[in-house]
Design brief:
about 375 residues; mainly alpha; two-stranded antiparallel ribbon; globular
Length: about 375
């Protein structure tokens, strides 16, 4: 048990610290040259910030993720060729060397697709808005490549391949846009994404691959790298924000988290089937999906375009209820953390306990809805 704990600690250190440091450091020059790059958010419109603030936080997040995986690729190549280097690694990691090497093609194809979204998002940030239909077309194209080209998709016991593939594409596009819409207050989208990434990484490290007793290290490592980059970003983004994530960052984060959940296995068990574990991703993503769903509903009810930003988000409604902006963000962190813990439990309990866990999450969300109901009515008037 001690060896396993040490190995998990080593895994967390090599996946979280490098992207954290690279993102943290790289965002200083991005902040400095943001104006020259045309990546600046100015007060006005539906935005609630009062100062000119650099955009482009997604560039730092992208750099942290890419540097970490590039370093890992080079290290993996060297370690496979050198027995002396292997002797310095934890013994538990050696069984993953060949598997990781074989999946490098998948990894870099995925990172290439993510880079397309970063370019789209940064272009959106520079121009102050890309045509929403073009943006959705690119998002669906990238999602389609991942599902139909790379073969990642839901395993939801539906048994209809075209339906699961379609739902997988919708899942990716929905998560991309949910994190983008959530990026409306200092530290909000980045913090929520970090909590979700950490929660799902714990699920991967405690849920074995089918037919093995080994954790799902590949997916866990991807989520931990994303989490590390987000923590580095939050150093600059938490209130008062020195830089915003921008569309480039929210697209990147939403995409990688969405695909990681498609790559994962949730319902495996050596003792009993646990199909309810398939609900773990939905549970972890409850807050971003709740925010996106309610905002779209409010906009459509008011006869406005669902693509035009406003102040009807979950965080804004909490502020209207009397919370400060920081309190609203911390409240959403707490709800997200609760949902994340519930997602971990879902993968390790039987059906009776799972119903209880899901009931607790449902009651918590219902309580939020009741508390917000008055403010919803105000936004609709």
């Amino acid at each position: 048990m001690t060896d396993l704990t040490q190995w998990i600690g080593w895994l967390v250190a090599v996946t979280v610290l490098p992207p954290l440091l690279v993102t943290l450091v790289s965002l200083y020059p991005v902040r400095r040259f943001a104006d020259a790059l045309g990546l600046v958010a100015r007060p006005g419109g539906h935005s609630t910030h009062t100062n000119v603030t650099p955009l482009g936080g997604g560039i730092g997040i992208w750099l942290g993720i890419m540097f970490t995986f590039l370093s890992a690729t080079v290290t993996l190549y060297l370690v496979r060729q050198n027995a002396d280097l292997q002797s310095h690694l934890p013994s538990q990691s050696l069984v993953y060397l060949e598997g990781a090497w074989l999946r490098l093609g998948q990894l870099w194809s995925l990172l290439g697709a993510a880079t397309v979204l970063v370019i789209l998002g940064v272009t959106d940030d520079r121009r102050g808005g890309v045509n929403p239909f073009f943006r959705l077309a690119v998002e669906f194209a990238v999602a389609g490549y991942v599902v139909y080209g790379m073969g990642f998709g839901l395993t939801a016991f539906i048994g209809i391949s075209w339906l699961t593939d379609f739902l997988s594409v919708v899942w990716i596009v929905a998560l991309i846009n949910s994190f983008n819409m959530l990026d409306n207050m200092d530290g909000l989208s980045g913090g929520v994404a970090a909590i979700i990434s950490a929660s799902m990484a714990i699920v991967m490290l405690t849920t074995p691959d089918p037919g093995t007793s080994r954790p799902q290290v590949f997916v866990a490592a991807l989520l931990l790298v994303v989490c590390g980059a987000l923590l580095g970003f939050l150093w600059h983004n938490f209130s008062p924000a020195k830089i915003f994530m921008g569309d480039g960052g929210s697209y990147l984060v939403g995409f990688l988290i969405a695909v990681a959940m498609l790559m994962a296995t949730f319902a495996s068990s050596d003792h009993e089937p646990r199909p309810h574990a398939m609900l773990a991703p939905l549970c972890a993503m409850a807050v971003p999906l709740y925010d996106m769903t309610t905002v779209l509903w409010i906009r459509i009810r008011q006869g406005r375009s669902p693509f035009v930003g406003d102040r009807s988000h979950f965080s804004h409604r909490l502020v209207e209820l009397g919370l400060s902006r920081t309190q609203a963000v911390l409240t959403i962190y707490l709800v997200t953390g609760t949902c994340g813990l519930a997602s971990v439990l879902l993968t390790h309990v039987g059906i009776v306990q799972a119903i209880t866990v899901i009931g607790i999450v449902a009651c918590m969300l219902l309580l939020v809805i009741i508390l917000e109901s008055t403010q919803w009515q105000n936004t609709q008037e």
